[in-house]
Every structure is written in structure tokens, then in C-alpha cells.
Amino acid sequence: MIYVSPSLLSADFTNLEKEIKSCEESGADYLHLDIMDGHFVPNITFGPFIVEFCKKISKLPLDVHLMIEKPENYIEKFAKAGADIIVIHAESTVHIHRQIQLIKSLGIKAGIALNPATSVEFLDYIIDDLDLVLFMSVNPGFSGQSFIPSTLDKIDQFNIYYQDRLKEDFLIQVDGGVNDKTHKLLTERGVNMLVSGNYFFKHPNRKEAIRILKS
Length: 215
Fold this sequence. Notes:
The structure is a single chain. Helices cover 32% and strands 19% of the residues. By secondary structure, the protein is of the alpha/beta class. The protein has one domain (3-214): TIM Barrel (Alpha-Beta Barrel), CATH 3.20.20.70. Strands 1-8-7-6-5-4-3-2 form an 8-stranded parallel β-sheet.
């Protein structure tokens, strides 16, 4: 099963409710919400109020990606706003295990994101507690970037190291440059959750975009 999670970062925020409904009607499985603080990444997006808005108007589960420093200060706020998954960055906090425990204690799926230059070996002592690993295939901060090819080698390495330790419903997610040319390279390596921003929202037929990504 391949899941598609459109990234609202690429949506038209002047028609946000319509854009979210379009995700539902197109057959998306999740909504991906990129939270940026202007410190961990060079951009600022939105806070818990947008997550709360999405929860009110959509039945799709919310996949919340915290690209922020010290996520421990905000995890409970995003949980309360309606997040179904919270992903924090390996590079963003000192006590990563404590934050994963906090997320799971709130009844939410917990994930770790790895920047392009972060080794998969970081996961050695945390993989058994995770529900999801997110491979950033671009440097985080802006939509519309090109896919970094070395991501494929990194996923191969992840599979060698950890395949036997993953739960049956474990999610392997990739975010950045996911489109009709890169999706197959990912899914053939076991990636089962694709985050799509520009490709999905700029496609003339979004239902067809979902079909292609899942094919």
C-alpha cells in the first residue's frame, strides 16, 4: 500500500479550504503540514491554528512535520490541535528519545526526519520506538527543490540496517522532489508514504497525480 500525503506548503492559501477538499476528492491519504520557525530552517510557515483548522474541515489524518528548534516546547500544542502523526528532526533537539516518548504518550504516531546529510546510523537506538522515518530528499525550508539522488543510497542503507526491526505498519516517508519521475525509484525501495507538494498542487488533474504516484 502506497500512501500519498500532499504538502499544504504548495497549496493556494487564499483558498485553503478548497485546496484541502481537493486533496480529499483526489484520493489523498493524509495531509502533510510543514511547520517552520525561521531558525531551524530559513523560512516561516504557520502554527497550531492551521492544524486545528485542517482538523475541523477535513477527515484526512494530519501528518505534522516540525521543522523547528526545540520541538519539545510545541509537541503538546500540535497534539491538541489535532495532529495524528508528529515528526521531529533528528538534528533539532538534544533529548530525542524523550521527545519521541512524549509524542507517543499523547496517543500519536511518532516519527524522525533525517536531513540529506544526516546518517541513518543516528536511528540505531531509537528505531524500535518509531512509527515513521522521513527521508528529506531536499534541504528543508522551501518547496519546489530538485530531488537529491543520494537519497536513494541512503534508503538502501536504511533497509540493510533496519528492515528486520520494523513494525508491520511502519511508514517510510520521503519528502522533496517527489513526482512522476522519482516516485518509482522510491517505492521499489520500500518507501510507502510519498509527500508531494508542487507536483500534486500544480498538476492539471490532481486525481491523476495521485494515481500516478501510487502506480
